[in-house]
Amino acid sequence: MPAARVLIDGPSELVFDYAIPEGLPVVAGCRVRIPLRNKTSQGTVLDIVETPGDLGFSLRPLHSLTEPEPLITPKLLEAGRWIASYYGCSIESVIRALLPEAVRTEDNSAKIRKTVLLEKDPDPELLAKITKRAPKQAAILALLSHSAERKIALADLGEGASASVKSLAKQGLVLVHDEEVRRDPEADGIEEIVADSPLPLNDEQHGALEVILSSLHLPDSEPRPPILLHGVTGSGKTEVYLQAARRTLDLGKTVLVLVPEISLTPQTVRRFRARFADMQDQVAVLHSNLSQGERFDEWHRIRKGKARIVIGARSAVFAPLPDLGLILVDEEHENSYKQDQVPRYHGRDVAVLRASLEGCTIVLGSATPSLESFQNTLEGKYQIVRLLKRADGQSLPLIRVLDMRLESKKHKGGMAILSDRLRVALEQRIAKNEQSILFLNRRGFARSLQCPACGYVCMCAHCSVPLTYHKEDERLMCHICGHQAVVPRKCPDCRDPAIHLQGFGTQKVEEVLAKVLPSAKIARIDADAMRKKNALRDLLNAFQARKIDVLVGTQMIAKGLHFPNVTLVGILNADIGLHVPDFRAGERTFQLLTQVAGRAGRGELEGEVIVQTFTPHSPSVQFARHHDFDGFAEQELEFRRQFEYPPFAHCAMLTSRSTHERRAEFTLQTLHRRLTEDCPPGIIIGDPLPSPLVKTHGQFRFQLMLRSMKARPLTRHVQGVLQKTTLPEDVTVVFDMDAWNFT
Ligand SMILES: Nc1ncnc2c1ncn2[C@@H]1O[C@H](COP(=O)(O)OP(=O)(O)OP(=O)(O)O)[C@@H](O)[C@H]1O
Ligand SMILES: [Zn+2]
Ligand SMILES: [Zn+2]
User: Fold this and answer.
1) Where in the sequence of the chain do the CATH 3.40.50.300 domains occur?
2) Whose CA is nearest to atom 7 of ligand 1?
3) Burial group, residue 89, by CB count within 10 angstroms (0-12, 13-18, 19+)
4) Could you say which cofactors this protein requires (predicted)?
5) Is residue 20 classed exposed, middle or buried when 0-12, 13-18 and 19+ CB atoms within 10 A define those classes?
6) Ligand 1 centre and the CA of 234: distance in Å?
7) Are 32 and 26 in contact (CB under 8 A)?
């Protein structure tokens, strides 16, 4: 007898089988109402299973379907199963990602409203009569005839209007109907969309579009290898995306666009909106700050095929688009595609999988492709298309590397923030009324408080990191857990009053600039300054309008920004990211330098980049300086091959956490021992070690790295050991397949 295996909504991840009532079209992916104890609950059908007839008891039947169609498409359900087995997580956790909370709740579906429509204008005689006998009805008629679309929501007509409306309807003057309302996520702070039209493509772009189109037009049964679009900064990748998307829609198919983070890529989103202005209601933008109701609306619009082009970050990879024709993954190298909570999937990799399941075309675009994707092109698994020239015919900016060890000497041991060279360059730009961007790499580095007498550093009480000084509110703050502390007047350890600030942050840079460039208008972009809603957008608009001369910022300004009047980019501390314990450190530094440098000289005017560094000869700096991706990739891949790191092996992390240091350590040691016993061939197991960030949020952390050519055997082995091991209650163990964060 077939039964429905149902994952019950709620935190406890219960799964039960239910009998399917005669004639009810229940398939995997459906949402159902089910009896649970003596209540009615809801759940998602994971599977249709065959139950033996001699169960000894009969299954309770499920009540009904919440919607006639399955909410999760069969292909997405298949992708979900893959994720569960590949990343070693429960299918339940994956279903929760596939079907967000907001989408499951029926309460969010109150989206129908009664609307009153003016059917015909009363002739003057009738109107006079109504005005005299029923002034309320007359008022409603007047309101309607003056409204934009000759319609008004019944609720907006005020209390007690329904009787009047009813009688107007009887006279055939108005019509009342149910209207589906869409809560427009953009409604507040709305921006005017200026429609734009396709640009004539240059030869390189044309070639790239042709490759994408021939993949689009392949017969359904043909495999479509992913296409890596490697285009230097400003080469016009976005224009290629836009035209490919349009052609896909013309074929009657739908398009999914993934971007690293919506709030950090406002320009990309705006360009899609502008290009598809003629079909605005078919564009869905999945922001992370959508309300539950908005998320519900957008999701159902997508599922019903009303929104045919979806733009979103990582989790949008699960957008239930029917007839998917094209997936675009912009800035495919970005870390933010990796989810750092269960299920710990990589959005780009899931996109590639989804494309293969759906039989659609996928394009991964970047100016600095990940070595994983690049290696796939070398092995012939992916196709590669290149845009080597800037779209506007400009050359790539000239990059100068400045040795800051020499600058520091000039400053008598003190930390130089701004070299003379960079200061002069800034002054020149201001004199010419051109704009500059100053970039501060803050990874693993921030402004901390240190005692010069005894070396004491103010640390977070809960995490093994120094507290960061925030000038605006005169406080020390932990950037990991948010812990705050007052700034001590004397060293807490030796009582020396000379305790002072080490290093520098964006606030300090802004302060120094204000002194050095008194006439310049300076603005700062970082997580602190951008906490207010729309702050980033407003600031970028002001910069675009040239109301700001110098923009100072962190990682936030590295992404996809296009400002033609920017002719100078300064990178203040280029190599700081090199000193973190992560085999991708060099790759990240190369990417960051190339991306930031790429913000310069994107218009008529030539661009210059000044890179301040203490390690001028590091390969990441040198290859970035020469715009040499291939050179960088060749040398970096050699290193990865030699040490068996990705892309030549899968790399996973097993982490234990506890408030009890010893228990966290002991647990990981136990797991290490069991993993080493009868370990399948081809898996390299590292030693259990304290994490580089040994303590966060008051918890001690230990980690061990596992590597393997093949992913599945590794996941299976770890899952097997974890299932056999009883963990102490106060220890949490996390398995992260294809890990991207090693601190
Ligand atoms: N064929 C074209 N003719 C003229 N201008 C173009 C063409 N294609 C793109 N452009 C313009 O060139 C500029 C850079 O293009 P775009 O921002 O798409 O590059 P990109 O490759 O996405 O850059 P990045 O990776 O640096 O974000 C834009 O102003 C765009 O309008
Ligand atoms: Zn001291
Ligand atoms: Zn902390």
Assistant:
1) 203-387, 398-445+504-640
2) 391
3) buried
4) Zn(2+)
5) buried
6) 5
7) yes
Q: Which CATH architecture has domain 398-445+504-640?
A: 3-Layer(aba) Sandwich (3.40)
Summarised one tens digit per residue, pLDDT across range 501-526 is: 656 677 778 888 898 899 999 998 87
Distance CA 225, CA 211 (A): 11
Secondary structure (3-state) at 551 = strand
Protein residue whose Cα sits closest to atom 30 of ligand 1:
236
Task: Check if 607 has its Cβ closer than 6 Å to any atom of ligand 1.
Answer: no
The CATH classification of domain 650-736, taken from the options 3.40.630.30, 3.30.70.600, 3.90.550.10, 1.10.1660.10: 3.30.70.600
- Model confidence pLDDT, tens digit, residues 511-565: 888 988 999 999 988 776 666 767 777 888 899 899 999 999 877 776 667 888 8
Domain(s) labelled CATH 3.30.70.600 in the chain stretch across 650-736
Fold of 2-109: GIY-YIG endonuclease (3.40.1440)
- Please tell me the distance from the alpha carbon of residue 93 to that of residue 203, in angstroms, as a whole number: 46
What distance in Å separates the CA atoms of residue 544 and residue 547, rounded to the nearest whole number?
8
State which ligand 1 atom lies nearest to the alpha carbon of 331.
25
CATH no. for 203-387: 3.40.50.300
| Count of beta carbons in the 10 Å neighbourhood of residue 376 | 21
Which pLDDT belongs to residue 731? 95
What ipTM was reported for this prediction? 0.94
Ligand 1, atom 16: nearest CA belongs to which residue? 236
Pocket perturbation via mutation, ligand 1, pick of 230, 239, 330 by most ligand atoms within 8 A of CB: 239
User: How much is the pLDDT for 283?
Assistant: 93
pTM of the model: 0.83
State the chain's mean pLDDT as an integer.
Answer: 87
Rounded Cα distance, 337 and 323, in Å: 24
CA-based radius of gyration for the chain: 30
Name the strand (E) or helix (H) holding 716: helix 711-724
| In the predicted structure, residue 189 carries a pLDDT above the cut 50 | no
Q: In angstroms, rounded to a whole number, what is the distance separating the alpha carbons of residues 179 and 161? A: 18
Give the CATH class of 112-180.
alpha beta
Name the residues around ion ligand 3, CB cutoff 5 A: 460, 462-463, 478, 480-481, 483
Closest CA to 176 of 185, 189, 184, 164: 164
**Location of each CATH 3.40.1440.60 domain in the chain:** 2-109
